[in-house]
Specification:
Elements: E1 5-11, E2 18-24, E3 32-37, H1 45-52, E4 57-58, H2 65-75, H3 94-104, E5 112-113, H4 114-120, H5 127-135, E6 148-149, H6 162-171
Helix pairs in contact: 4-5
Length: 190
């Protein structure tokens, strides 16, 4: 089997359709998730999968199905515990892996600033680079990049759009002030 055979599952949620794409592997090796695609205005998840992973086919796998179930439960509002075990992190450089692993540690219902995350990985002047690494996070929800925001409490960016970022944070119990900034009590000490 070729290394570049992709399969996907689509799941419906109150937020829209989410796609999970994984790379099939030769017999004896575990498949790895390569992307979680969020609903976006103007572009359907099926179209994005077809464009980014040509030839991807709908499928199921005993190692991937439990992760898809966790994503469904998360999107329904449940607190779930994801793992990095099924993710294809090997294709990233050291800096991006550090950012993604630290982001993964931010607990539900809490946020951190881009600068705070940069400090935590030992690069205190790399807030912008952290933002870029998170913008390229192919595993949103599993690696919860919506939990990193601007130091002033404003949302910053998010691949699924700011409306979805706020909705996910609110679903997790994060509160906002009257101008749309996250309350300081929800920040992890940077």
């Amino acid at each position: 089997m070729s290394e570049n055979v992709y399969c996907h599952q689509l799941l419906s949620s109150a937020f829209g359709t989410v796609g999970v794409v994984w790379r099939q592997t030769p017999v004896g090796r575990s498949p790895r998730i390569v992307s979680v695609l969020l609903p976006r205005e103007g572009s359907g998840v099926k179209t994005e999968i077809a464009k980014s992973f040509p030839g991807s086919r709908p499928g199921s796998h005993s190692r991937i199905d439990p992760v898809v179930t966790l994503i469904e439960r998360y999107l329904a509002g449940e607190a779930v515990a994801f793992s990095l075990d099924c993710l294809d992190l090997g294709r990233f450089g050291d800096f991006q892996r550090k950012v993604l692993r630290q982001e993964f540690r931010i607990p539900r219902g809490k946020v951190m600033s881009y600068g705070g995350l940069a400090d935590r990985i030992g690069h205190p002047r790399a807030a912008r680079a952290v933002g870029t690494a998170l913008a390229r996070n192919p595993f949103p929800l599993i690696i919860p990049c919506h939990r990193t925001i601007q130091a002033d409490g404003s949302l910053g960016g998010f691949g699924g759009g700011l409306k979805l970022k706020r909705a996910l944070l609110e679903m997790e119990g994060v509160a906002f002030d009257r101008v749309g900034r996250v309350l300081k009590s929800f920040f992890i000490n940077d």
